[in-house]
Design brief:
Serine Threonine Protein Phosphatase 5, Tetratricopeptide repeat, single chain, disordered C terminus, TPR-like_helical_dom_sf, mainly alpha, 0% strand, 4 domains, repeat, 68% helix
Length: 810
């Protein structure tokens, strides 16, 4: 229970007909409310989470979590001096997904429900109809027995309660109880004053004592039932209220029990209780307003409108508030024109009617008229700077138009006033996430989950933040919990799939992403993630379908552009690859994946300086990016800067000593440097460690070519031929492999086979100097015009020269 819950005293001079503290029927749109030092943060009944809800707040006073049935219903204190308030005029009057009916009463209301409950007399107290002095005397007669009716302490206590001076009234009531310890009415009155001051323990103590000493009197049961309602002990509340009604049927107790039934979603029982209250007090405007609220929960909007029409008839003095309520019902049924007509009429009658301003502001926001909405919310905050509702809705508007800093300011202000407001915590956590304030977002979500541990929205939100900060285990825990509560939530499935993808659990990721896309085909994140996943599976066509779709949904998606560029690169569609990667880097200059892939692309195209620029920039941002180190090592190798290449490759192998790609690359460097034993060691490890043959086929082929070359150089021609044949079966036009194999054949005196390989090389590259020279020598040898020894020496020397030159495929 919020520490702001209170028992409102309930007399507002502006609203004299019925329950002035919370007579407005409809809840404020959404969940926020306003607060002062007398209001609560909770509410009781919701129509649906996305709609404004019906509540009974007037435009005079703050909404409380439960104000239908307060002590004021029995005491009639406070109307004479309370100034005009709105439901937004309090600083902590939250409107949540549930709505509330305030308990404060006014004169007409007391005339029907309270006077009979307090005294035999039918007289009422009203600022507008009865002289305050006469009313005070009437209350003295009502509240106290004849044995103490002339005690001046009573008169003073009554006056102080009317003036809402609760501290002082407790002093006088305590003096009375010192003299008359069995005074039932004085004890109940003191309980009321304690509750107004949020001194819950002494209030409950007085009510318990009153029930204990006078178990056959109904008033203390009813008040204690309301108290249990406020602290959310609904079972105890129902017991006490039912006991009170068994002893004496009163409209107050029926209304209080209706509120409890509404919280428990027992709307039919709530209607029955309100009908019973109307039997006791026919045409009571407050009860009709409460019943219209419950009708809205049941989607019986015609009945709700009928009740509010009757309220306009029976209580024309407060027509502005009733029009605001009726305007909200019209909004709920989609009659926007009628809603505006009623809300504008309400504000014409009373320009500072806070309830009407709130409803109209929300309606403007609902239809996207943000400027008009902000104007109404600004007016609300001028009238009441501590309006939680005003700050929350203004924050939501700024969030929707992308002004995140202004939104954050408003949510901060709202949470200063109502720190446990679940709705605002959700919004602020999202703002923090969008601004990259991840720890602040987690703090808000942790706080919210303490208040609502099984809220799937909060679990999803925290899981998403953990995903963004790469706390994948915590992220999975939250997504798993949220999916147990909502198994078909596309957002949770998508994000969990993305977590699995980052953890390289590809099959689990694919299951989640497939399900998410089947639920929401236009899910951008799911399309992007599945496209990237299919890229890693080498399912390039499937990857392109998802990434193309993602770019139709969002043409400037950096993730989709970079991944599609990477797919094009793998498909050797270099021009398209560079176009996508260039565009991604125009949108985000430091996007690491795009820099990485463009660096690899430039290396493949022989644009080594451009490749080094991209890779150097990336390694400044991410010094331990192993792919970037490998790519830069490959560029250095191509530029014959072998020592620098070895530095990069050794860094990678210190981190991942069994990774086949850097092992293959280092083996090639060692071969070029003439360290053939080291080369063979690395290349053999690389081939043994290539677990995913399909994914690593490119690197495996390089390893085979380089190991075959190394075997040839050290004279192991059979081993060389096995490796080269396997590599050329996968890549029949690899010039390096063909040249190497021609030399192996030459050394094995298979001249015809050697000439075939050289012919293939020349068909691919007619100007290849090595192939031309070697072919000439082979023809001489085959024709017997050159000795075997001289030709072998010449060709061997030539090939050794060739083997240390840059070959594009390597």
């Amino acid at each position: 229970m919020s520490n702001k819950i209170q028992f409102c005293c309930g007399f507002i001079s502006k609203y004299n007909k019925y329950d002035a503290v919370n007579l407005a029927m409809l809840t404020r749109p959404r969940r926020a409310s306003d607060s002062d030092n007398q209001t609560s943060t909770s509410s009781s009944i919701s129509v649906e989470s996305s709609n404004p809800y019906i509540n009974s707040t007037t435009n005079q006073v703050p909404v409380t979590p439960r104000r239908l049935t307060t002590l004021s219903k029995f005491t009639s204190y406070g109307s004479g001096n309370q100034h005009h308030h709105s439901s937004s005029n309090s600083s902590n009057n939250t409107t949540s997904t549930k709505t509330t009916v305030s308990s404060a009463s006014t004169d007409s209301y007391n005339e029907h429900s309270t006077s009979s409950y307090i005294t035999k007399s039918n007289s009422t107290f009203s600022k507008n109809t009865i002289n305050p002095q006469v009313a005070t005397q009437g209350k003295i007669k009502k509240f106290f027995t004849k044995s103490k009716k002339n005690d001046p302490q009573l008169t003073k206590a009554a006056q102080l309660l009317e003036q809402r001076q609760f501290h002082e009234s407790i002093i006088y009531l305590t003096r009375i109880l010192d003299k008359h310890s069995n005074s039932y009415s004085a004890r109940c009155d003191r309980a009321y004053a304690y509750r107004q001051l949020e001194k819950w323990a002494p209030a409950l103590q007085d009510l318990n004592l009153a029930v204990q000493r006078f178990p056959q009197k109904s008033r203390a049961y009813a008040l204690r039932g309301e108290y249990y309602y406020l602290i959310k002990k609904y079972d105890l509340a129902l017991i006490d209220l039912s006991k009170s009604l068994k002893l004496q049927q009163t409209a107050f107790a029926f209304r209080a029990r209706a509120d409890v039934n509404c919280v428990l979603l027992n709307y039919s029982e709530a209607i029955n209780d309100l009908n019973s209250a109307l039997v006791l007090e026919p045409n009571n405007p407050y009860t009709l307003t409460c019943r219209s609220k419950v009708y809205c929960k049941l989607n019986l909007f015609a009945e709700a409108l009928l009740d509010l029409d009757n309220v306009l008839t029976y209580d024309p003095q407060n027509a502005s508030t009733t029009l605001a309520n009726r305007g909200e019902v019209y909004r709920l049924i989609g009659r926007i024109d009628m809603a505006f007509a009623d809300l504008n009429s309400a504000l014409d009658r009373e320009e500072n009617n806070m309830l009407a301003l709130e409803r109209r502001g929300f309606l403007y926001k609902h239809i996207g008229r943000h400027v008009d909405a902000l104007r109404d919310f600004d007016e609300i905050l001028k009238l009441n700077p501590k309006s939680v509702f005003g700050h929350e809705n203004r924050g939501e508007i700024y969030q929707s138009i992308g002004n995140l800093n202004e939104a954050l300011y408003n949510f901060d202000e709202a949470l200063k006033l109502d720190k446990d407001n679940l709705s605002i915590l959700k919004h602020r956590s999202e703002i923090h996430r969008l601004l990259g304030n991840y720890q602040s977002a987690i703090n808000d979500l942790d706080h919210a989950l303490i208040l609502s541990p099984d809220d799937p929205f909060l679990l999803r939100g925290r899981g998403e933040v953990y995903r963004l900060v790469q706390c994948f285990d915590k992220s999975l825990d939250d997504f798993n919990k949220s999916l147990k509560l909502e198994p078909c939530n596309a957002f949770a499935l998508t994000s969990r799939g993305e977590v699995y993808r980052m953890l390289r659990q590809g099959q689990k990721a694919l299951v989640d992403l497939d399900q998410a896309i089947s639920i929401a085909p236009d899910n951008l994140l799911a399309r992007e993630s599945r496209g990237a996943l299919n890229r890693t599976f080498r399912r390039y066509e499937e990857a392109l379908r998802d990434l193309d779709f993602a770019l139709q949904l969002k043409p400037d998606s950096i993730f989709a552009l970079a991944n599609r560029g990477a797919v094009y690169y793998m498909l050797d569609r270099y021009c398209e690859s560079q176009m996508d990667l260039d565009k991604a880097l125009q949108l985000c200059h430091n996007y690491s994946f795009a820099l990485e892939n463009r660096g690899a692309l430039f290396n493949t195209l022989g644009k080594y300086e451009q490749a080094l620029m991209d890779l150097n920039k990336l390694l400044l941002l991410e010094p331990e990016n192993t792919w970037a180190l490998c790519y830069r090592g490959e560029v250095f190798y191509a530029l014959e800067r072998y020592n620098e290449a070895l530095i990069d490759i050794n860094k990678v192998l210190d981190i991942q000593p069994t990774w086949c790609y850097p092992l293959s690359l280092r083996g090639a460097i060692y071969r070029s440097l003439g360290y053939y034993v080291k080369a063979l060691e690395d290349l053999t490890k690389s081939l043994h460690n290539a677990k995913d043959k399909a994914y690593n086929i490119k690197y495996e082929n390089k390893a085979l070519l380089n190991r075959g070359s190394s075997y040839r150089i050290i004279g192991k021609f059979n081993e060389a031929l096995l490796d080269l044949n396997k590599a050329l079966m996968r890549d029949p036009k690899n010039i390096f492999g063909l040249c190497e194999r021609s030399c192996v054949y030459y050394n094995m005196e298979c001249y015809d086979h050697a000439l075939v390989d050289l012919d293939v090389v020349l068909s691919i590259d007619p100007n290849n100097a090595f192939a031309q020279s070697q072919k000439t020598k082979l023809e001489y040898v085959r024709n017997g015009s050159e000795s075997d020894s001289s030709s072998r020496t010449s060709s061997g020397q030539f090939f050794n020269y060739y083997s240390v030159r840059r070959v594009e495929e390597i």
